[in-house]
Amino acid sequence: MLAVPQALRRGVRAQGKPIRLGGTLPLTGPFADTGVWVERGYRYWAERTNRQGGLLGRPVEVTILDDASSVDRAVSLLERLITVDRVDLVLGGYPGTAAAAQMALVERYRKVYVSMGGHMASFRRGFRYSFGGPPLMGQWWYEGAWRWLANIPRGQRPTRAAAITVNNPVGMAARESFQEGLKRLDIPLVMDELYDLPLASAEPLVSRARALGADMFLANGFFPDGVLAVRAMKVLDYNPKVVLQAVGSLIPEWVTQLGPDGDYIVSGTAIHHKLPFPGIAELNQVARERWNLKWAPQYFLFGYAWAQLLQQAVEGAKTLSHAVLVRYMREATFRTIAGELRFDERGLPAPYEYATQVINGEVELIWPPGRRSAQPVYPKPPWRR
Amino acid sequence: MLVQAVQALATGLLTGTVYALLGAGFSLIWGVAHVINIAHPALAVGAAYAAYALAMRGVDPLVSLAVVVPLFFVLGVVLYEGVVRPAARRSGDLVLVSMVLTFGLAAALENALAAVWGPGPRVINVAYTGQAVRLGLLALPVPHLAGAGLAAVTIAALYLFLHETLPGKAVRAVWQNREGAALCGVNLRQVTGLTYGLAVASAGVAGVALALIYSFSPASHLTWLVFVFLVVIVGGVGSLVGAMVAGVLVGALTHLTTLVLPFAWTPFLLFASLGLLLLWRPTGLLRR
């Protein structure tokens, strides 16, 4: 069960002037594939909240403006929502570049902002009003994978790693994670290439990794470049023991579109449809009924979690005053679909350490052992032909 | 190292040939009608979705061209007659108006595709996806071979049409001197409509070829537009052979540089080469 709003417990219907929440998301453009899922998460949260008595007994009204995947538009539209439309609460944007820019804006207007953040750099800027609830933190991305690999007997671990990384804040944040993690595991990084988007072809990079004898391959990019990397590995018959992929493998299309070629890819996450936290089962059910999906996609869960955190803050502090909310959020513990969250002075919860692997078309949790939904497959089987 | 070099060169040439086809149709419209058709890659994305829809019903993307090519030819003529021509008649600055108009059309197409298919990416999976023709240590991806084959055949057919047939010669005449062609009795409206039909049909073939290699989403046209401009500017506006040479050069350069330099330098080298080329030949390699 999710934390039930007080109004519902009293059996009271939401009434009065609606509480208005507003934000921007990339509903068109290159980031729309994930942006729409965040929006669906927000909208389902609003629908559910209204059904269950509203927020502080008042109905909630969500306005999402399409920033067309442009950071500039994300900032100017959010400013309009704050200054012209005068929304009561602000919803977090996506992706990290937009969120990082919006974090600076909300600081100026002193509005609480719950989002994925713009990786660690954005949380080191001393902002008071921004919270990663949970964040999408490149620096923590592969933490679960490192712990899982550390658990494999040394003689069976990969011995040489090759990495290709998208040259943007997401990739750079993931790069910090793997450079540090590989050092810890004492695995030499024999290739560490950056690429700009659009990636025209992954063959030259994969071919080099193979020639260098890397038995661990890290593709730190998005869906289109992830697909190119996987296909290049298959074409070149390159079979490393483990393949790690960053953001691309998080969206449902990795499984539904790529099919068996997407199997055995290892990644990380802050939130997962098979975690045992209250509310996850309900959201999986919603995804099944509304979108004919087996599970709730991760970005749907993220959107819901960010709104849920905001809701708990408002209900806990019993106010819409952002000054009070921000103080409350620094002290309280929140129980969300991403687990228990308590924020430090940067607005960050404790680092997460979930590792996932795509196994037979399902994104399974393989680390930590207590949260496992499937046994990891290691080494990765050769490509199916 | 030698195997890697040959592998990089081969994949680069195959990929570059597909870029060339996407650029060829764009170049044709720019050359003949002086219209910068920003919607050209969006139309190619539309063809990719058409091939995807048919692939879901078991139709191979190569077979789907039997539907895509005539459909997109008609679409091209309709685009000219219904959208561009009325705007051209009322406009004093066709280049600017057509850019704005086709930019709007691209945005509308993107939104229409997103409304029908959702904004998520799609991947065409066929029996030969991820398969390769192996020549010793060299692996030539079959989808790249199929895409490049389609591109080469289409560019050759366009070339032959333009050089060996009467309507094709009329297209070239309009391209070289619009007023002169009209004075010689060439029907400008028919020829321009025909050009649009051919160009959009070639965008359809390019879309299918690209979909064999890349994942695509409604927003992919923004990515593909980069390739189009690169090929057309390097090759020279209006030159099919130039587009082919430029595509192959771009493909080879992007793939080969990674052998000796960090991959991150590729865009810098590519655009630096483009700058130098434009200093040497401001109208591109083979402008008509």
Quick description:
The complex is a heterodimer of chains A (385) and B (288). Chain A has two domains: 6-137 and 297-342, Rossmann fold; 142-245 and 252-273 and 353-371, 3-Layer(aba) Sandwich (Rossmann fold), CATH 3.40.50.
Question: What do these coordinates show?
Answer:
The complex is a heterodimer of chains A (385) and B (288). By secondary structure, chain A is α/β, with parallel strands linked by helices. Chain A folds into two domains: 6-137 and 297-342, Rossmann fold (3-Layer(aba) Sandwich); 142-245 and 252-273 and 353-371, Rossmann fold, CATH 3.40.50.2300. Chain A contains 13 helices and 14 strands. Chain A has helices spanning 6-9, 32-51, 71-83, 96-109, 119-123, 143-150, 169-185, 203-211, 223-235, 253-256, 280-291, 298-317, 322-331; strands spanning 19-25, 60-66, 89-91, 113-115, 130-132, 161-166, 189-195, 216-220, 242-245, 265-269, 333-336, 339-342, 354-359, 362-367. Chain A has a seven-stranded mixed sheet with strand order 7-6-8-9-10-13-14, with helices on both faces. In chain A, α12 crosses α13. The radius of gyration of chain A is 21 Å and the shape is globular. The termini of chain A are far apart. Chain B is mainly α and 288 residues long. Chain B has one domain (2-280): ABC transporter involved in vitamin B12 uptake, BtuC (Orthogonal Bundle), CATH 1.10.3470. In chain B, strands 1-2 form a two-stranded antiparallel ribbon. In chain B, α6 (166-176) packs across α8. The radius of gyration of chain B is 19 Å and the shape is globular. The model of chain B has no long low-confidence stretch (mean pLDDT 89). The A-B interface holds A 27-30, 32-33, 35-36, 69, 164, 167, 193-198, 200-201, 203-205, 207-208, 211, 223-224, 227-228, 231-232, 234-237, 251-253, 257-259, 261, 383, 385 and B 1, 3-4, 7-8, 11-12, 15, 107, 110-111, 114, 118-123, 125, 129-132, 139, 141, 214-215, 217-220, 222-223, 226-227, 251, 254-255, 258-259, 262-264, 266-267.
